[in-house]
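Re: that backbone. Tokens:
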């Protein structure tokens, strides 16, 4: 196989793989976006379904009730 045919084949295959990966990435993005909670399912204002809000008082209580370090 001549060098120019080899290089053109490599370029063509690279281009096709790039297109296929772009389509796959877009499909994965759309699947991920479809799993997000809808705005009408939102909790009370300021709350989020993903994280639990921790305030300083809660953190201090958990530190006080933790086991003492072993040393």
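Recovered sequence:
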């Amino acid at each position: 196989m001549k060098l120019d045919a080899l290089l053109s084949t490599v370029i063509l295959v690279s281009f096709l793989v790039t297109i296929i990966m772009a389509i796959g990435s877009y499909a994965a993005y759309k699947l991920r976006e479809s799993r997000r909670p809808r705005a009408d399912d939102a909790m009370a204002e300021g709350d989020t379904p993903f994280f639990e809000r921790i305030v300083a008082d809660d953190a201090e209580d958990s530190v006080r009730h933790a086991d003492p370090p072993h040393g």
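Residues 3-64 form one domain. The chain has two helices and no strands.
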